[in-house]
Amino acid sequence: MKRHRIIILGSTGSIGRSALDVVRSYPDVFEVVGLAANSNVELLAAQVNEFSPAHVVVVDEDAAAKYGQLGLSVACASGLAALDDLAAVEVDIVLCAVVGAIGLHSLLSAIDAGNRVAVANKEPFVMAGQLIMARARAKGVEVLPVDSEHNAIFQCLQGAAPEAVQCIHLTASGGPFYGRDRDTLHTIAPAEATNHPTWDMGAKISVDSATLMNKGLEIIEAMWLFDLPAEKIEVVVHPQSIVHSLVEFTDGHILAHLGVTDMKFPILFALTYPERVSTPMARLDLTTMKDLTFSTPEFDDFPCLGHAREAAAQGGTAPAILNAANEEAVHAFCREEIPFLAISDVVGEVRQQCAGRAATDLETILSADRDARVRALEVIHTLGTVKT
Ligand SMILES: NC(=O)c1ccc[n+]([C@@H]2O[C@H](COP(=O)([O-])OP(=O)(O)OC[C@H]3O[C@@H](n4cnc5c(N)ncnc54)[C@H](OP(=O)(O)O)[C@@H]3O)[C@@H](O)[C@H]2O)c1
Q1: Whose CA is nearest to atom 35 of ligand 1?
Q2: Cα distance between residue 209 and residue 214, in whole Å
Q3: Which helix (H) or strand (E) holds 169?
Q4: Per-residue pLDDT for 194 more than 80?
Q5: What DSSP character marks residue 274?
Q6: Is the pLDDT of residue 388 over 50?
Q7: Last residue of a domain, one of 146, 171, 203
Q8: Which CATH number do you get for residue 345?
Q9: For a surface tag, which of 140, 192, 202, 216 has the fewest beta carbons within 10 Å of its beta carbon?
Q10: Whose Cα sits closest to atom 20 in ligand 1?
């Protein structure tokens, strides 16, 4: 196999660390050309010492100054523009694993430079998926999904004619609170919401999984990745997280993707596609599979999923507004400024206040994102629970 030169944006996060575990297992297959993080310079320094990338970015300026004092052999660049510049360095693949809408520019920068991208960072797709895919098509750039559900669907769709796809079924674990009485969720602390039953992930996506917003964001991500209307994307609750998603064809066949709950599998697939690399990682033991269950989600108990479905159907800037409101609400919850159940209230209120428009260009989308964040912070404040 040829050596893959890679850049990892968000190398200190859950996905970034899993990606470096993959790289560590295949020293002859991967060469790390660039690493980027926001502020965790201690971990980044250890990664730099181990993988010797040519380029390092620390986005946060204060953290970059700290990095500079560590006396490492590779200096870092800082700021968001440096992240975009790193994404444009010519490599075989850029893994976009930053969290949040902040990753949009670097994703576009990688595509504009003609770099193939492996995308875990779903929020940019929710905001601007149509624009991202249009740019990728124009540049002839392949976009490979890392999110386990989308990676599963991507694999099930190999060789399929688009018109033969009846619908896709995104599986949802349900998160830590599925099936619990909603009245018991008022006092949920961030530590409980980030304790996911089947996946080990960063804080933001863990909270999104607990509200089921994550599945809503994934519906919108899937629309653009697979060029499907929202009504062809179903969500099915599957608490065991063994079936990672399914594709139903017009002739009644359903293809499912099964695997263990370890993001190293979809990461390895995306980084080496279209080849399949032999792996010593722990496999699924089919003989231990029992009681794989599938059910319709409880939309009333998880209003975020309903909000996302509506925003997906509305289109235009509605998904960007949804995403911005959700990001601000989740941050406020993690800072213990609003209760868990208020996350969906913030999203609902901001969606009501911000009129969606046609998402004609990037500036329109970014402006909708900015306005929605201002509104979200006002709503969070008026909820009267902001710490002083
Ligand atoms: N974790 C999963 O299993 C999983 C599965 C599917 C999809 N995803 C998606 O993948 C993305 C990453 O998730 P994660 O769980 O890995 O998140 P995470 O653990 O919170 O890591 C986020 C990464 O982004 C960096 N970062 C944060 N703010 C940044 C900024 N302003 N500029 C540049 N870098 C910044 C962080 O750097 P510092 O460490 O320095 O703060 C860290 O490296 C999310 O969009 C998520 O939805 C994750």
Answers
A1: 38
A2: 5
A3: strand 165-172
A4: yes
A5: T
A6: no
A7: 146
A8: 1.10.1740.10
A9: 140
A10: 202
